[in-house]
């Protein structure tokens, strides 16, 4: 069983080593680590850890937070494929697709950006609508997106009136980025959080910009 932990910890030598020892003491093995954000004296890291079947995620939280100034922002099951070149692999898949490249994009984006679902949305004569969605995208569509057209990547207010109630009930965090100047937008949903960090929004923007170039 694997979990994805988002951990807020001091940005100083030895912090990550201490965390690895603490997690190892409860039988967890760190499989990968991504630095999500660095600030004044702190870092936010995403860690994929492997634990024995039946192990409770609470033990991971307790082990980590027993360390000084360490906080677990979120923990959720992880079933993605580990790949240190996720963005490049997705871009290559989109470029090589013979049919619906947008579908390839939304199918791959959740794994690459570690979210629950992704959709591509656009605006037409009758307002905003979904073009394609990933397999995990909610059946309830957002039909009024007053922030469209979107000029820059952004984290959106998940409690805004345009957000379907079922999304709000699941405390879905939302981020989006324009696919070039096409008027279409790649939107991500992360049910249950955590919030999108500025670095994640920037990463989404870079990916969407490159994919837009590939799509032509």
UniProtKB/TrEMBL annotation:
Ranges annotated as spanning the membrane: none
Domain ACT: 4-77
InterPro entries (alphabetical): ACT-like_dom_sf, ACT_dom
Signal peptide annotation: none
Name recorded for this polypeptide: ACT domain-containing protein
């Amino acid at each position: 069983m694997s979990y994805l932990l988002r951990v807020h910890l001091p940005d100083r030598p030895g912090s990550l080593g201490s965390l690895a020892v603490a997690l190892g003491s409860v039988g967890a093995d760190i499989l990968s680590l991504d630095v999500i954000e660095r600030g004044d004296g702190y870092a936010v890291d995403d860690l994929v850890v492997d634990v024995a079947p039946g192990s409770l995620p609470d033990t991971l939280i307790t082990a980590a937070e027993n360390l000084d100034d360490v906080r677990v922002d979120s923990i959720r099951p992880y079933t993605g494929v580990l790949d240190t070149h996720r963005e490049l692999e997705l871009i290559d898949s989109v470029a090589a697709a013979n049919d619906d490249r947008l579908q390839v994009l939304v199918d791959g984006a959740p794994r690459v950006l570690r979210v629950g679902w992704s959709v591509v949305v656009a605006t037409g004569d009758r307002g905003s609508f979904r073009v394609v969605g990933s397999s995990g995208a909610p059946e309830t569509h957002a039909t009024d997106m007053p922030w469209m057209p979107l000029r820059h990547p952004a984290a959106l207010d998940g409690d805004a009136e345009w957000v379907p109630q079922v999304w709000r009930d699941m405390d879905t965090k939302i981020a989006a980025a324009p696919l070039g100047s096409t008027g279409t937008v790649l939107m991500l949903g992360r049910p249950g959080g955590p919030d999108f960090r500025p670095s994640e929004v920037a990463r989404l923007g870079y990916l969407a910009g490159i994919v837009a170039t590939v799509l032509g």
